[in-house]
Specification:
By secondary structure, the chain is mainly alpha-helical. It has 4 domains: about 150 residues, Rossmann fold (3-Layer(aba) Sandwich), CATH 3.40.50.620; about 80 residues, Glutamyl-trna Synthetase, Domain 2 (Glutamyl-tRNA Synthetase, domain 2), CATH 1.10.1160.10; about 50 residues; about 100 residues, Arc Repressor Mutant, subunit A (Orthogonal Bundle). Helices cover about 50% and strands about 10% of the residues. The chain has a 3-stranded parallel β-sheet with strand order 1-2-3, with helices on one face. Strands 4-5-8 form a 3-stranded antiparallel β-sheet. The chain is elongated, with a radius of gyration of 32 Å. Bound molecules: glutamic acid (GLU). Glutamic acid binds next to loops.
């Protein structure tokens, strides 16, 4: 099935949201699974609402998610001539007609239909008037009067619509711009799209598009409509539920693999497996296991998955990813230094913002360590300070200042003075990092290096 062609067709009227991202991921996976093509098409026919900044943002999010596309990026706004040539064809073959009914009259016709308990629709007044082009005129499809449109949806199974319920839809607006349904059908058909996977908010467009495929004599693709993502309360997903745009997740410090993995599982399953490497998704993805019931967004699970990926990523890669977040905290550190620190701290963070924050005290100079007042009061008593000074001496005398050396220095001081570890360690810990808690003390000391550790101990003793 290597002729599989899928597409993602965002309208650049906002940033890429998780619903759109999930649609993009499904289409990308399907194309990659079959070794086919994945087309990216910017649906910017609505020139008022479409903005280049949103196109840029959507593209940046696609790249961040790792969703590469095949061939050139397509802008519908550059294809108006193509759409018009297909509209001309429909006019010539008698499948479309010019209509001069002004919008307020069409609205009246709709209201009349509504009042009779019928579906609101245009009453076909211009159907057989044989009008030509003219100011304010639109082109409408001459929809068949009756019949049923039935298709086998990849997600929902058999879906049927009564043609009598469909309008003679507008194909070309009075300003010359093509409508969404016309442009989508011309593009999907001429780009050889074999599978149209999209949100089920588009389900009602599909019968209209099928009429157009038929009128234009194109083969139909397979359609699949995935249910919308809901909030944890099963209501329409919104910001209130903690859902963000993809770009916000990036800023928030999520790893792209975590978001991809999470979104795929919100609508597709493979047994009860939760964690998938990207290659595994490509290998296993198929439309058979797309869920027909809507999934609820769960920010805690996303956070949990992100924590998982934080711990799975190599230190070098994680250092590269966390670097901008560390820089945003005001530190100028190189990635190789961060690669040493991250293995020690990643257990304590669920996202890159947190990871940068928990490493903060390792990055500040001794003079800027923030001492937690309660920890100081508890651990840096007079006796505690004496032990800090004692350990300091042992550290000065140390040959190689590494993890084992630091551990031995503390140990020797404790043993040599007939003390217990817990009488000494908390004071040294607070002196070095400013607070209780944190990773192993010798690990942190070795990473800070001798000069920094001694300076911190001196500062603590003098507090
Ligand atoms: N441009 C449409 C949207 O952003 C998608 C069209 C489609 O997938 O057919 O909702």
């Amino acid at each position: 099935m290597s002729n599989v062609v899928t597409r993602f067709a965002p309208s650049p009227t906002g940033h890429l949201h998780i619903g759109g991202a999930r649609t993009a991921i499904f289409n990308w996976l399907l194309a990659r699974h079959f070794g086919g093509r994945f087309v990216l098409r910017i649906e910017d026919t609505d020139t008022e609402r479409s903005k280049q900044e949103y196109t840029d943002s959507i593209l940046a999010s696609m790249k961040w998610l790792g969703l590469d596309w095949d061939g050139d990026l397509i802008y519908q706004s550059e294809r108006f001539d193509i759409y018009n040539s297909y509209i001309d064809r429909l006019l010539e073959s008698g499948h479309a007609y010019w209509c001069e009914c002004p919008p307020d009259e069409v609205e009246k016709m709709r209201e009349e239909a509504r009042a009779k308990g019928l579906k609101p629709r245009y009453n076909g007044r211009c159907r057989s008037r044989d009008l030509g082009p003219g100011d304010g005129r639109v082109v409408r499809l001459k929809a068949p009067a009756e019949g049923r449109i039935v298709f086998d949806d990849l997600v929902k199974g058999t879906v049927a619509f009564d043609v009598a319920e469909l309008d003679d839809m507008v194909l070309r607006r009075s300003d010359g711009a093509p409508t969404y349904n016309l442009a989508v059908v011309v593009d999907d058909a001429t780009m050889g799209v074999t599978h149209v996977l999209r949100g089920d908010d588009h389900l009602s467009n599909t019968p209209k598009q099928i009429l157009l495929y038929q009128a234009l004599g194109f083969d139909l693709p397979r359609f699949g409509h995935v249910p919308m993502i809901l909030g944890p309360d099963r209501k329409k997903l919104s910001k209130r539920h903690g859902a963000k745009a993809v770009i916000e997740y990036e800023q928030y410090g999520l790893l792209p693999q975590a978001l991809v993995n999470y979104l795929v599982r919100l609508g597709w399953s493979h047994g009860d497996q939760e964690i998938f490497a990207l290659e595994e998704l490509v290998e296993k993805f198929g439309t058979e296991n797309l869920n027909s019931s809507a999934a609820g967004f769960d920010p805690d699970k996303l956070e949990w998955l992100n924590g998982h990926y934080l711990r799975e990523t190599s230190p070098e890669e994680l250092a590269r990813l966390v670097l901008p977040f560390v820089a945003a905290e005001g530190f100028d550190v190189d990635a190789s230094r961060l690669a040493q620190l991250v293995p020690l701290f990643r257990e304590r963070a669920n996202n890159l913002v947190e990871l940068a924050r928990v490493m903060r005290f390792m990055l500040v100079p001794a003079a800027e360590v923030e001492y937690d007042a309660a920890a100081v009061a508890k651990a840096l008593t007079e006796e505690g300070r004496r032990h800090v000074a004692g350990v300091r001496e042992a550290l000065v005398a140390l040959g190689t200042f590494d993890r084992e050396g630091c551990e031995k220095a503390i140990h020797d001081y404790v043993e040599g003075n007939g003390l217990k570890f817990k009488q000494v360690a908390p004071a040294v810990r607070v002196a070095v990092v400013g607070a209780m808690g944190g990773p192993g003390l010798p690990d942190m000391m070795a990473l800070l290096g001798r000069d920094d550790v001694l300076a911190r101990l001196d500062r603590a003793v003098a507090l």
